[in-house]
Specification:
Layout (H helix, E strand, L loop, with lengths): L1 H15 L10 H9 L5 H8 L6 E3 L22 E8 L2 E8 L10 H17 L3 E5 L10 H17 L5 E5 L2 E3 L4 H5 L2 E5 L4 E3 L3 H8 L5 H5 L1 H8 L4 E3 L2 H12 L42 H8 L6 E3 L7 E8 L2 E8 L10 H16 L4 E7 L6 H5 L2 H14 L4 E10 H6 L9 E4 L4 E3 L3 H8 L1 H6 L3 H15 L3 H6 L5 E2 L5 H11 L18
Parallel strand pairs: 3-4, 4-5, 5-7, 6-8, 7-9, 12-13, 13-14, 14-15, 14-16, 15-17
Antiparallel strand pairs: 1-2, 2-3, 10-11, 11-12
């Protein structure tokens, strides 16, 4: 309740600050924006950037279209506020679309302003933040507006992997406009006030005869749970911007730098042991547990920032700190679908792995996976191709990569989840790990089928063979004998071992074969 009041207080304070209101669409339109529980373009920038750090570029730019009477309204800035400043002392570039001017619609000059900021961000190696609130293309400018969108898309692509790009959707984002955020690294949406879709409810009604609201079709809840388009669904704009600032704290400025490292005082090994992990994983291998408890026990306290929290929940991805170092975490979630890999989980993981690799963020994989999800739905919708995306992403990643197998590592999923065979640097296993082609019961039924059928008590014989298979094959020591597992560690040692391993790998260098680029199975 305390945080909610603080957010509302900040919201109310920003509403009172309208010294530069005349640069927008006027006080009446600003009031209308506030009635929708939305901040203005300048208020959003003020909330995002360090106080007094914003330097505006293109304040006096005006549109060039004189058709349809637009020349009668001279709005300075032409519907978008652009510039640069700092967030927690680190440089960023930002554009903030102004819905109070022509509904935030994009014009030729509007696009030029955004492209100029994008160019500066790329030249100077700093993140680009887009605060989106637009009705789409400015119809009166026709192809000039469409060309402006294409110019932005092209620069988004050039910037991809060079600098972090984050899009915060704070109002409408429809039609072709959605493709710029889609190319960026992370998308945030605000519940009940933002939406994204290629075709709106009216077109859907005309073409398919479906009755659907804007919120149902492309709201924050829809895109955070069903489509996976957005990575964060935020309660209001203040929470959205605070989340954005938190996300930036884990990221480097560009692809040639490392993420900020916080000071950390290492005391001794005993101080880094976490005995709570010993009680999290159940003795029964078929009983679920929450992998997030393992994550929280390993990382620096309270530093986990989950990405795509509500989408493909059988896979967990997010940023955290370990001994002050920013790391990316990819983990199976046994509490959801037993942690199985499916289409959505695979694409979710692959996208995150590729981002971390682009920006020098080390990867930690926590593995408890029984395999890929079977069924016609998965096969017909391309589990093969989509599962290969995750495999490909890990294979091409050159950042430090460490895997800890907490329990199950079965079949092809063992290979895909950052195994030693696809280039992982260090692979650990807990004593509870089961590394095999398949589960012990299924394997015993196949291998010892005849022996079980001929036994006086088939059920008893099956249990005997299950235990035999488990002891001989489904054990981490068999993999460790071959060097596929570097060490079998006690659960409480996990944090300490990871700290030492990431420290050892911090100067890792990999020289890949010379080529233009690979062809990931999209």
């Amino acid at each position: 309740m305390k945080n909610t009041l603080t957010h509302q207080d900040k919201f109310n304070e920003l509403q009172r600050k309208n010294e530069e209101a005349l640069l927008g669409g006027g006080q009446n339109r600003i009031d209308a924006q506030h009635k929708k529980n939305k901040l203005t373009a300048r208020e959003r920038i003020e909330l995002l950037l360090d106080e007094g750090s914003f330097e505006e570029i293109g304040r006096f730019v005006m549109h060039r279209c004189k058709d349809f009477g637009l020349d009668k309204e001279y709005y300075l800035g032409d519907g978008v506020v652009t510039g640069y400043g700092t967030v927690n002392g680190r440089a960023i570039y930002v554009f903030s679309q102004d819905f109070t001017v022509f509904g935030g619609s994009l014009s030729e000059t509007y696009a030029e302003k955004i492209c100029k900021i994008m160019d500066l961000a790329m030249k100077n190696g700093a993140p680009l933040i887009g605060l989106n609130d637009s009705g789409g293309a400015r119809i009166q400018e026709g192809v000039l507006s469409l060309a402006g969108y294409a110019d932005i898309f092209y620069k988004n692509t050039l910037a991809s992997g060079l600098i972090p790009q984050i899009s915060a959707i704070m109002g409408p984002c429809a039609g072709g406009a959605v493709y710029s955020p889609a190319i960026t690294d992370f998308i945030m949406m605000v519940e009940n006030t933002s939406y994204m879709f290629v075709t709106g409810p009216k077109v859907v009604k005309t073409v398919t005869n479906e009755e659907v609201t804007s919120e149902e079709l492309g709201g924050a809840s829809t895109h955070s749970t069903k489509s996976g388009v957005t990575h964060f669904s935020c309660a209001n704009e203040v929470v959205c911007i605070q989340t954005l600032k938190n996300l930036l704290s884990y990221l480097p400025q560009n692809c040639e730098e490392e993420a900020p490292r916080l000071p950390y005082q290492f005391k001794n090994k005993n101080a880094e042991l976490r005995t709570t992990i010993n009680t999290i994983i159940p003795e029964n291998p078929n009983q679920p547990y929450d992998m997030k408890e393992i994550i929280e026990a390993i990382i620096d306290e309270g530093t986990f920032l989950e990405i795509h929290k509500n989408f493909a929940e059988n896979m967990i991805v997010g940023f955290a700190r370990l001994a002050g170092r920013s790391i990316g975490i990819v983990a199976n979630q046994p509490a959801v679908l037993a942690g199985v890999l499916d289409i959505n989980a695979s694409t979710k993981g692959a996208r995150f792995v590729r981002f971390c690799d682009s920006f020098n963020i080390p990867l930690l994989v926590l593995e408890d996976v029984p395999g890929f999800l079977p069924g016609t739905d998965q096969e017909w919708n391309g589990i093969i191709t989509n599962g290969a995306k995750l495999l490909y992403a890990f294979c091409e990643a050159t950042v430090p990569r460490i895997t800890v197998i907490t329990r199950k590592a079965y079949g092809g999923a063992y290979d895909v989840m950052n195994s030693k065979h696809i280039g992982a640097d260090m692979n650990y296993a807990l004593p509870t790990a089961e590394i095999a082609v398949m589960g012990a019961k299924g394997a015993a039924e196949i291998i010892f089928k005849k022996e079980i059928e001929e036994a006086e008590n088939p059920s008893e014989k099956l249990q005997e063979k299950v235990q035999e298979y488990t002891t001989k094959f489904a054990t981490p020591y068999r993999a460790a004998h071959r060097g596929y597992i570097d060490e079998v560690i006690m659960p409480e040692e996990t944090r300490y071992k990871l700290m030492r391993a990431f420290e050892m790998l911090e100067n890792k260098v990999v020289n890949l074969p010379k080529k233009k680029h690979g062809n990931i199975p999209l």
